[in-house]
TrEMBL record, chain A:
PROSITE patterns: CLAT_ADAPTOR_S. GO terms for cellular component: AP-3 adaptor complex; cytoplasmic vesicle membrane; Golgi apparatus. Part of the AP-3 complex, an adaptor-related complex which is not clathrin-associated. The complex is associated with the Golgi region as well as more peripheral structures. It facilitates the budding of vesicles from the Golgi membrane and may be directly involved in trafficking to lysosomes. In concert with the BLOC-1 complex, AP-3 is required to target cargos into vesicles assembled at cell bodies for delivery into neurites and nerve terminals. The keyword Metal-binding does not apply. It is a peripheral membrane protein. It comes from the Eukaryota. Its main location: membrane. Residues 1-147 form the AP complex mu/sigma subunit domain. Belongs to the adaptor complexes small subunit family. It is found in: Cytoplasmic vesicle membrane; Golgi apparatus. This is AP complex mu/sigma subunit domain-containing protein. Keywords: Cytoplasmic vesicle, Golgi apparatus, Membrane, Protein transport, Transport. It comes from Eleginops maclovinus. GO terms for biological process: Golgi to vacuole transport; intracellular protein transport.
C-alpha cells in the first residue's frame, strides 16, 4: 500500500500532497516538513530509500523518492510494495506528466495541481497501484479532458481566452525550469510495459 | 438559452480561478496569510451563489488551500453539492476535494450515499471512475455497507476501466466492512483470470494485500497464483504474486519446495532487477521455511547470496541498499553463508550513504562470533568517533550494545572489556541513550558476579569524574549512567577499594543539579556506602569522618524539591544521627546497619509478571465489591453535589463503628490475608527465599584470573583488552597444544587424527574468566507461551475470515430494498437471496460439500474466531462429537443431489491444494498426507478423529472429471500415473459407498484414526424398496435444493443373480399429487430406462426426480421395474413391483440456522405448536440428536446440556423447529411449524424412527 504521495520543491514548498490515510491539516504539514528535511539533506548519489519519518508510518514504512531538477517526488509505502517497482512508478508518473504538460516544469505543477491530481488518480487509487502503463494512463486522461472541453463548449471559450490573456502579461513566468534529467538512471524501465 | 450561458460565463470569467489564486499567493509572499484569508472570504461568497460553476471554482481553490494546510472542512456541504453536479467537470472537482478532505468523522458523508450510487451506475464510465476514485479515499463503514453490492456489480462491468477500479476499491470496502469479504470473494477470485491485464493486476493486488495480513486463509489460492506466475509477463503482477508467495510459504513448506525451481529460473532469466530482487527475497523466505533438513538447497542459498553480492557491489546505491536488506533476512537462518561476505559488509559501513550504513549495521548483528566480536566493536567505536549526525551515532551506540548483549552475552568472552566499552560510550556527546548504557551496566554488574569488583572500580571512577558527564548542558541524556554507577557502587560496596572517596563523590553539592531520580539513588546508596565504611572499622577515623560528612551534606538533599530525594534524605539523616547517638553510648551498631541492606536482588525477567498463570477459580473481571447500582444514576448525584446539606449518611457511620467492632474486623482481615496466597505478607522471609533458592547461591563463583590489572588509571581504554585478549588466546592455544600432545602421548593410539588447532574455532575460545550469567527469574509455573499480542486496533484483524467456508444463508451483501422485517424471513428467503449473491446457482449445492471441509479446516487452524463463526454448528465443546457426526447426513444428502449439481470448482480447489502440493518433485506425497493424518491422529480430541474421517473420504470420490482436468493443468506428466491409480480407487469406493450404508464408520476405520469414546452406530437412510431373486432395490429420498416442488429418489440396484441384467425400466403410477418427471415427449405412463446394465454381483445407483404438489402428507406410489435377465443361452423378461414411500421427512432439507434467527422465528408467533414424548430411549443424547439430524434432515441450532434446539426447512419453505429435551430415558420433543399437518407427520416419523431401535 502507498500511504502518501508528496511532491515538493527544493525549498520544501508542497506542490502536491495526497494522503491515503486521514491526517488533519496540521499533521499533514508537519509530515511534509519532516519528509522534506529527511530527503533534502541527502546527497545526490545516495540511495533513494529512507526508513520513514517519525510521523508517518513505522518500521514497516519506507520513503521512496526521486529528485528531478527542482522537485522531489516522495512516495511513502509499506513493505507490500516493491521498492524498485515504486521507483519505476515515479518515473512513469513523471514521464506521464511530461507528456501531458508537454515539457513539464515546476510551474505546471504549481498552477495545475488539479490536473496533476487527475493524472495521479489514473495511476494510484486509494493507495494501490491502478495502472502502470503510460499509454493507457494518457489515453484515459485525454479522454476525460476531452469530455471536459466538450462540456465547456462555447461557454468555456471566453474563460479560456481570458485566462490566456491573463497569462500573456506574465513576464516572470519562466518556462525553462525543465525537468531535464529525465534520463536519470532507470535500472529496469523497459521491463515495465 | 445558449446566449444566457455565455453571458453567465462572461460574468464569471473575471472571477478568480485557481491559477489566479496561485498567482496571487506568489505575488503576496510577504503577507501570504492575510491574502489567503481574503481569498477565503471571497470563496465563502462564491459558495453562497447558486451558479454551480462558481461553486465548483471555489471548491477547486479550496482544494489547493487544503494542500497548503488550511482547514476547509467547513465547506464540506458545498463539496457535496459540487459532487452532485451533473457535469463531469464539476463532479470531478467535487470528488477531488472530497477525497482530499473527507474522512470518517465528516458528517456530510452520509448525504453522499445516494449520489455516489447514482454515479456508480452512470452510463458514462468516467462518472463512475471518478466516483470510485473519490470513494476509495473517503469510504466509511456505512458507505462500504451500503455500496458494497453496487461495487460488486461493477466488478463485472463491460468496461475494463471500471472493472479495474471496482476490483481495487473492494479492498477498501473489505477493510471498512469485513462482512462483505466472503460474499464478494468468489467474484474477486474470478477476476484473477480476467482477460484484461489491468483488471487481473488489480485483483492480484487486492488479494495480495488481503493475504499479507492473513495468509492462511488464502493458501487454497496457491495453485491459481502459481499458474499466473508461470504464465504472466507483467512484472508488476509477477512481483506481487512472488511477494504473496513469500507470505504463504511459512505456512506450507511443501509450497516452498514447489516454488524453488520456477523462482530459480526467473532469477536466471529476468532482466528486471526489481523482479530478480523479489524472487531472491521469496526464495529466502522459502529457505527459511524449509530451514531444517533440506540439505540440497544449499545451492539455492548460494545462488541468492551470490546474486545479492552482485547487488551490493553494484554502483547503484539503491541496489546496494536492497542487497543488504535481503542479506539480513538470510542471516537469520543461514548466518554461515552471509558471514563469508563479512569483508563486503564491513566495507559498506564506510559508505557515505547513511541508509546503507544502517543496513550494514543490521547485518553485523548476526555476523559476530566470540572470535571477532572485539574486532568488530572496535571498528564500530571508530565510527562512533567519526560519526557526525547524532542519529547515526545513536544508532551505532544501540547497535554496539545490541551486538554485545545478544543472546545473553553469548559472544562476550571478556566482560572487563565490555564494561570498558560501556564506560567509553559514556563519553559520547549528546546521546539520547544514556539509559540504555545504564541498564547494560546494571545488567552486567548484577548478572555477572565475577565482574563486580572491576565494575565497581570503574563506576567509582565514573562517579568521581561525574563533572565530565554533567558539565555540558547538551549531555543530559548521558547522566543516566550515573544512576547505574551510584547503584552499583552502593550495592556492591564491599568491592570498593576506597569507599570513603566514593562516598565523598556521591555527596558533592553538585549532585543536587542532577535529575531527581538520580539524586534519590545517590542518597540511598550513600547510605549503603556508609554502612560499609562503618563495618570496615567501627570507631575508626574513617567511619567518624563518614558520619560527619553524612550529617553535613545530607541536609542539602533534605531540602530537595523532589519528593523522593527529600524523603530518603531525611530518613537517612535521622538514621545516621541515631547511629551517632548509639555510638556515643558505645553500642556496636555496624552489623545492624549493614543488615539494613543485606540480601541480594535478583534480576526478574521482563515478562515474568505477565506469565504468571491466573489461578483456577480466580476471575479477574469479577467485581470485588458490589458494583454501584444502576439506579443511582447521574440524575440523583448532581443534586447531592449541589445541595448545601452534607450527605447524611457519611458522618454517623464513623461514630457508629466502635472499637470492638474495628478490632474484630481487623482480626478477620488478617485471617483472610493469612489465607490468601497472593497477599504479600509483612514477614521478612521473602529475602531469604531468594537466598535459599538453588542455582543462585550454589553457583560456584570462580575466582577471577587477573590477566588484566584491575586498577586502570583514569578511564579504561578498551583497546588494550583487544591486545591482551589476543595474547591470552595465543597462550591458551599453546597450552592446549601442550595438553593435547601430552594426551596423545598417554593414549598412544588416538582414534583417528585429532584436529590440529589450525584455524581457531568458536569452541576453542575460552572466556577470560568463568562467568556465571545469572538468569532472570521467572515465576515457577510460568506459561511457556511467547506470543506477542497483536495490535487490537489493526483493521486487518477483522479480515481474518475463512474464505473456504461456504457462504451461509445470512451472508449476503445488503441490497437496497424497502424496509421489511428481513431477519424474520431469512431462512425462507435465503434460497432467493443466494441466487442473487452467488452468480451461478449451480454452486449452491456445493455448499454442503464444503461444509465437510470445515472440520478439517478447523482442525488445522484451531482458531477460536472461526469456531465462533461456526457457532450454529458447534455450540460448545461438548457437542463436538456430535458436530463431527452431524456432517454425515450432509455427506449422504449431497450424494443424492449430485445429479442436479456437479461439484463446484471451489471445493475442488481446497482438496486440490493438497494434491497439487503433493506433486512437488520431492516425493513428499505420502509424507504430506501422513503428516496431516498424523496431525489428526495425534489430536486427542475425538472431534479431530470424527472430523477427519468423513472429510478425507469425500475428497477422493468427489474428484469428478471437471476437477480432474482442472488440476491436471498444473500438473506434470510424471504424476499422471499416480493420479490414474487414485482415480481407480475412487471409482471403486464410489460403488461401495452406497452399499455400505455405514460409510462414515468404514471410512474412519480406513483412516485408522477412529478412537472415539462413544462411536455412533452406523446409520443409513437407504431402505429396502423391493427384492426378488434377481435384483434388490434400496432407495433414499431427498428434497431438491433447487426446486421447491421436486424430490429426488436415489435407487441402488443390486444384481443378486449370476446373470446379466439389462434393459431395466423404472415406472410408477403417478398420482394427482406426485408425478415422476419424464423426459419431454414421453407419455404419462411410459417408464424410464435405467441408464446402465448390471453384470452379476454389481450394484449401481440411478436417480429419479418426482414433482410434488403438496408435501404435507406422506404418500405412497406404486411402481414396477421391468428388466431382462440374460444368461448365456437364454434371456427372460422379469418384473418387480414396489411401493415408493414418500415420507414427510424426505421433504425436509438440512438447513443451518443461526440461533438469533431461530429465536426470532420462534417469537414471530406464526408457528403452530405440537409435541411428542418418546419413552424408553436409552441412547446417549448426542446419538439421539445425530439420529434426528441424520434421518430427518435437521440441524442443531443450539445445544445446552440435555436440551437442544433443531431446525429444518421443507422444500417448500416451511420452517420446522424442534426443542428436544431428555431426562431419564424420556425424550420430549416440542415442535413448531407453520404447517401443522406436516409437523404432525414429521413427529410421527421421528417417533417411528426411535421405536424401531
Amino acid at each position: 500500500m502507498i500511504k502518501a504521495i508528496l511532491i515538493f520543491n527544493n525549498h520544501g514548498k508542497p506542490r502536491l500532497s495526497k494522503f491515503y490515510e486521514h491526517y488533519n491539516e496540521d499533521i499533514e504539514q508537519q509530515i511534509i516538513r519532516e519528509t522534506f528535511h529527511l530527503v533534502s539533506k541527502r546527497d545526490e548519489n545516495v540511495c533513494n530509500f529512507l526508513e520513514g519519518g517519525m510521523l508517518i508510518g513505522g518500521s514497516d514504512y519506507k520513503l521512496i523518492y526521486r529528485h528531478y531538477a527542482t522537485l522531489y517526488f516522495v512516495f511513502c509505502v509499506d513493505s507490500s510494495e516493491s521498492e524498485l517497482g515504486i521507483l519505476d512508478l515515479i518515473q512513469v508518473f513523471v514521464e506521464t506528466l511530461d507528456k501531458c504538460f508537454e515539457n513539464v516544469c515546476e510551474l505546471d505543477l504549481i498552477f495545475h495541481v488539479d490536473k496533476v491530481h487527475n493524472i495521479l488518480a489514473e495511476m494510484v487509487m486509494g493507495g494501490m497501484v491502478l495502472e502502470t502503463n503510460m499509454n493507457e494512463i494518457i489515453m484515459q486522461v485525454d479522454a476525460q479532458n476531452k469530455m471536459e472541453k466538450s462540456e465547456a463548449g462555447i461557454a468555456g471559450a471566453p474563460a479560456r481566452a481570458v485566462s490566456a490573456v491573463k497569462n500573456m502579461n506574465l513576464p516572470e513566468m519562466p518556462r525553462n525550469i525543465n525537468i531535464g534529467d529525465i534520463s536519470i538512471k532507470v535500472p529496469n524501465l523497459p521491463s515495465f510495459k | 438559452m445558449a446566449l444566457k450561458i455565455v453571458k453567465g460565463s462572461i460574468d464569471r470569467m473575471f472571477d478568480k480561478n485557481l491559477q489566479d489564486l496561485v498567482r496571487g499567493i506568489r505575488n503576496h509572499k510577504e503577507e501570504e496569510a492575510k491574502y489567503i484569508s481574503t481569498c477565503i472570504d471571497e470563496i465563502k461568497q462564491e459558495l453562497k451563489q447558486d451558479n454551480i460553476a462558481v461553486k465548483a471554482n471555489a471548491v477547486c481553490k479550496l482544494t489547493y488551500l487544503q494542500m497548503l494546510g488550511y482547514d476547509v472542512s467547513w465547506a464540506a456541504f458545498n463539496i457535496v453539492e459540487v459532487m452532485s453536479s451533473s457535469k463531469f467537470t464539476y463532479k470531478r472537482i467535487g470528488y477531488l476535494a472530497a477525497s482530499q478532505c473527507f474522512h470518517e468523522s465528516t458528517d456530510v458523508i452520509m448525504l453522499t450515499t445516494n449520489q455516489i450510487r447514482k454515479d456508480l451506475s452512470s452510463p458514462n464510465q468516467y462518472d463512475t471512475g471518478v466516483a470510485l476514485t473519490g470513494l476509495s479515499c473517503f469510504v466509511t463503514p456505512d458507505l462500504a455497507r451500503d455500496l458494497a453490492n453496487d461495487i460488486m456489480t461493477l466488478m463485472s462491468h463491460t468496461k475494463p476501466y471500471i472493472r479495474k477500479k471496482a476490483v481495487l476499491i473492494m479492498y477498501k470496502v473489505f477493510l471498512k466492512y469485513p462482512e462483505s469479504l466472503r460474499p464478494a470473494f468468489p467474484r474477486l477470485k474470478e477476476k484473477l483470470e480476467d482477460p484484461d491485464p489491468g483488471v487481473q493486476s488489480a485483483a492480484v493486488n487486492v488479494i495480495c494485500e488481503l493475504a499479507r495480513r492473513n495468509p492462511k486463509n488464502y493458501l487454497s489460492l496457491a495453485p491459481l497464483f502459481f499458474k499466473l506466475m508461470t504464465s504472466s509477463t507483467n512484472n508488476w503482477v509477477l512481483i506481487k504474486i512472488i511477494k504473496l508467495f513469500g507470505a504463504l510459504t511459512p505456512l506450507e513448506p511443501r509450497l516452498g519446495k514447489k516454488l524453488i525451481e520456477p523462482l530459480t529460473n526467473l532469477i536466471h532469466s529476468t532482466s528486471a532487477m526489481s523482479l530478480l530482487y523479489e524472487c531472491v527475497n521469496t526464495v529466502i523466505a522459502v529457505l527459511i521455511s524449509l530451514s531444517s533438513g533440506m540439505p540440497n538447497h544449499s545451492a539455492s542459498i548460494q545462488l541468492c547470496v551470490q546474486k545479492l553480492r552482485i547487488l551490493i557491489e553494484d554502483s547503484d546505491q539503491n541496489l546496494k541498499y536492497l542487497g543488504l536488506l535481503a542479506m539480513s533476512k538470510i542471516l537469520k537462518t543461514h548466518p554461515k553463508s552471509v558471514q563469508s561476505h563479512k569483508d563486503l559488509i564491513l566495507q559498506c559501513l564506510d559508505d557515505k550513504d547513511e541508509s546503507i550504513r544502517l543496513r550494514a549495521l543490521d547485518l553485523l548483528y548476526g555476523m559476530v562470533s566470540k572470535k571477532n566480536l572485539m574486532e568488530i566493536v572496535k571498528k564500530l567505536m571508530l565510527h562512533v568517533d567519526k560519526a557526525e549526525g547524532t542519529t547515526y551515532r545513536d544508532e551505532l551506540l544501540t547497535k554496539i550494545i545490541d551486538i554485545c548483549s545478544q543472546s545473553n552475552y553469548q559472544y562476550i568472552t571478556n566482560f572487563e572489556w565490555y564494561i570498558s566499552i560501556l564506560v567509553e560510550l559514556t563519553r559520547l556527546e549528546g546521546t539520547r541513550h544514556g539509559h540504555l548504557i545504564a541498564s547494560q551496566m546494571l545488567d552486567v554488574a548484577i548478572r555477572v558476579k565475577a565482574i563486580r569488583g572491576f565494575a565497581v572500580a570503574q563506576m567509582a571512577t565514573l562517579l568521581d569524574n561525574a563533572h565530565l558527564l554533567t558539565g555540558n548542558v547538551q549531555r543530559k541524556g548521558i547522566c543516566e549512567v550515573l544512576y547505574a554507577a551510584a547503584w552499583i557502587c552502593g550495592e556492591f560496596s564491599e568491592h570498593l577499594e576506597n569507599p570513603m572517596q566514593t562516598l565523598e563523590a556521591m555527596l558533592r553539592p553538585k549532585v543536587a543539579t542532577l535529575p531527581g531520580h538520580i539524586q534519590a539513588v545517590y542518597v540511598q546508596n550513600a547510605a549503603k556506602l556508609f554502612a560499609t565504611v562503618l563495618k570496615s572499622g567501627e570507631g575508626s577515623a574513617d567511619s567518624t569522618a563518614a558520619q560527619e560528612m553524612m550529617i553535613e551534606r545530607l541536609p542539602l538533599f533534605v531540602q530537595s524539591a523532589n519528593l523522593e530525594v527529600q524523603e530518603r534524605a531525611s530518613c537517612i539523616l535521622q538514621l545516621v544521627k541515631y547511629i551517632q547517638k548509639l555510638q556515643q553510648k558505645d553500642v556496636e551498631i555496624a552489623e545492624e546497619v549493614i543488615a539494613l541492606f543485606a540480601g541480594e536482588l535478583n534480576p526478574v525477567a521482563p515478562k515474568a509478571q505477565k506469565k504468571v498463570p491466573v489461578p483456577e477459580g480466580l476471575d479477574l473481571d469479577a467485581w470485588i465489591n458490589e458494583p454501584p447500582s444502576e439506579s443511582e444514576s447521574e440524575d440523583e448525584q448532581p443534586k447531592a453535589i449541589f445541595s448545601k446539606e452534607e450527605p447524611k449518611h457519611s458522618r454517623p457511620r464513623h461514630t457508629e463503628v466502635d472499637e470492638k467492632e474495628l478490632a474484630k474486623r481487623r482480626e478477620a482481615r488478617k485471617q483472610e490475608q493469612a489465607n490468601n496466597p497472593f497477599y504479600i505478607k509483612a514477614s521478612p522471609s521473602s529475602q531469604k527465599v531468594y537466598q535459599e533458592a538453588p542455582g543462585v547461591e550454589h553457583i560456584p563463583v570462580v575466582q577471577i584470573d587477573l590477566t588484566v590489572p584491575l586498577k586502570v588509571p583514569g578511564l579504561p581504554m578498551s583497546d588494550q583488552y583487544v591486545k591482551l585478549e589476543e595474547e591470552r588466546r595465543q597462550k591458551d592455544r599453546a597450552d592446549k597444544k601442550k595438553k593435547e600432545k601430552k594426551k596423545r602421548k598417554e593414549k598412544r593410539s588416538g582414534r583417528g587424527k585429532k584436529h590440529d588447532s589450525g584455524p581457531e574455532s568458536e569452541e576453542d575460545i575460552t572466556p577470560a574468566h568463568m562467568v556465571d550469567i545469572v538468569t532472570e527469574e521467572m515465576p515457577e509455573n510460568a506459561l511457556p507461551s511467547d506470543d506477542d499480542d497483536k495490535d487490537p486496533n489493526d483493521p486487518h484483524k477483522a479480515l481474518d475470515i475463512d474464505l473456504d467456508k461456504p457462504l451461509a444463508d445470512s451472508e449476503k451483501l445488503p441490497v437496497r430494498s424497502h424496509r421489511a422485517a428481513e431477519v424474520l424471513k431469512s431462512p425462507a428467503e435465503d434460497g432467493d437471496a443466494e441466487r442473487s449473491v452467488s452468480q451461478e446457482p449451480k454452486k449452491k449445492s456445493s455448499k454442503e460439500k464444503k461444509e465437510k471441509k470445515k472440520d478439517k479446516d478447523r482442525d488445522r487452524k484451531k482458531s477460536k474466531e472461526e469456531k465462533k463463526k461456526k457457532k450454529h454448528k458447534h455450540e460448545d465443546k461438548g457437542e463436538d462429537l456430535l458436530g463431527g457426526q452431524e456432517d454425515e447426513p450432509v455427506v449422504q444428502s449431497e450424494e443424492t443431489s449430485e445429479v442436479a449439481a456437479p461439484p463446484s470448482s471451489t471445493t475442488a480447489e481446497v482438496s486440490d491444494l493438497d494434491f497439487w502440493l503433493s506433486n512437488a518433485p520431492v516425493p513428499s506425497n505420502t509424507q504430506g498426507a501422513a503428516t496431516v493424518a498424523a496431525a489428526a491422529a495425534a489430536d486427542p480430541v475425538p472431534e479431530a478423529a470424527s472430523g477427519a474421517a468423513p472429510d478425507s473420504e469425500p475428497e477422493e470420490p468427489k474428484d469428478t472429471e471437471a476437477e480432474e482436468t482442472k488440476s491436471s493443468k498444473h500438473k506434470k506428466k510424471k504424476q499422471k500415473k499416480e493420479k490414474e491409480e487414485k482415480e481407480k480407487k475412487k471409482k471403486k469406493k464410489h460403488h461401495h459407498h452406497h452399499r455400505h450404508s455405514d460409510a462414515g464408520g468404514e471410512e474412519s476405520v480406513q483412516n485408522g484414526t477412529v478412537e472415539e469414546e462413544e462411536p455412533l452406530p452406523p446409520m443409513s437412510n437407504y431402505c429396502l424398496l423391493a427384492e426378488n431373486s434377481y435384483i434388490k432395490m434400496v432407495n433414499d429420498i431427498q428434497g431438491n435444493l433447487q426446486d421447491g416442488s421436486q424430490v429426488v429418489v436415489s435407487v441402488i440396484f443390486e444384481n443378486k443373480c449370476e446373470s446379466f441384467l439389462k434393459s431395466m425400466e423404472f415406472n410408477v403410477l403417478d398420482s394427482l399429487n406426485s408425478k415422476l418427471q419424464r423426459p419431454e415427449g414421453s407419455g404419462a405412463h411410459d417408464g424410464l430406462t435405467v441408464p446402465f446394465q448390471l453384470p452379476p454381483g454389481v450394484s449401481n445407483e440411478a436417480r429419479f426426480v418426482f414433482t410434488m404438489q403438496s408435501i404435507v402428507m406422506p404418500q405412497k406410489l406404486k411402481g414396477t421395474l421391468t428388466f431382462i435377465v440374460k444368461n448365456e443361452d437364454s434371456s427372460t423378461h422379469e418384473k418387480l413391483d414396489f411401493k415408493l414411500h414418500f415420507t414427510c421427512t424426505s421433504y425436509l432439507i438440512t438447513t443451518p440456522c443461526y440461533s438469533d434467527a431461530f429465536a426470532k422465528l420462534l417469537e414471530s408467533g406464526d408457528l403452530k405448536c405440537s409435541s411428542v414424548k418418546l419413552e424408553g430411549i436409552s441412547m446417549p443424547f448426542h446419538h439421539l440428536l445425530a439420529r434426528i439430524c441424520f434421518h430427518h434432515h435437521f440441524s442443531v441450532v443450539e445445544r445446552i446440556d440435555s436440551c437442544a434446539s433443531m431446525y429444518s426447512r421443507s422444500i417448500q419453505g416451511h420452517h420446522v423447529c424442534l426443542l428436544v429435551k431428555t431426562s431419564d430415558q424420556t425424550v420430549s420433543i416440542d415442535a413448531k411449524c407453520d404447517e401443522p399437518t406436516l409437523l404432525g407427520n414429521v413427529l410421527d416419523e421421528i417417533k417411528q424412527t426411535f421405536s424401531q431401535c
